[in-house]
Amino acid sequence: MGNDDEELRLRLELACSAAHEAGQLTLDFFHGRNYVVDRKEDRSPVTEADRTAEALLRDRILAAFPHDAIVGEELGVREGASGYRWILDPIDGTTAFVSGVPLFGTLIGVERQQRSVVGVINMPALDECVYAASGLGAWHRSGPNPPRPALVSHRDTLADGLFVTSQIDLWEHQNVWPVFQELQRRAYITRTWGDCFGYLLVATGRAEVMVDPVMKVWDAAALQPILEESGGSFTDWSGVPTIHGGEGIATNGLVLDEVLRLTRGSKKQH
Question: Where in the chain is the domain with CATH 3.30.540.10?
Fold first, then answer.
């Protein structure tokens, strides 16, 4: 194993353990319902659980990799000098979380040279996790069972596939409602099992495509290595493999071209 692989492996190990620890913390809040829901400037919800979980993640990262940079949804940016940057979303799916729905998770990505190279999606209420590092494969753990390779599905048309998304009104707000309608028309099944859970479904072969018209970097950072290492794709709406596009498409790779024919050029002001 080369030095680069070892650096990734060490960060992946920490990301997995820290995501599990943060997930258990958020699960205690979730079951106890002992938190106040605030609204951020964009009217999205945030709770003490979000902030406490991100603080825990930062503490674990700084103890192990003090020269790495960190950016998180709730607690801002910490500069670093190592070339690695951790990107944190302590509770992805806070709307589900505050609604008592178990489809929320902790997202951890690690970026190097503008590309995400480590990713973890941990779903504490489902006891399910998928994780990956570039060149080291993607793995899926469910319940007490040992991890097994995460693999996308082999369905090659939307007509046979499941299309998932997060929040339908965002398609209208981004003036891409016709794209949603056409994806829904073409897909065999459409559901809003969204946020990080939808991407986990694609990476583990249970859905063929997940599309979001709006994403922040902490929503996307964990996803790219997971989707790529599981045999699929994560791109922006133009087909560029990036976590910085402000939007996202995850597929099993086989339906990507069919999806891109609908999304490319659809955002006239993008």
Answer: 3-149
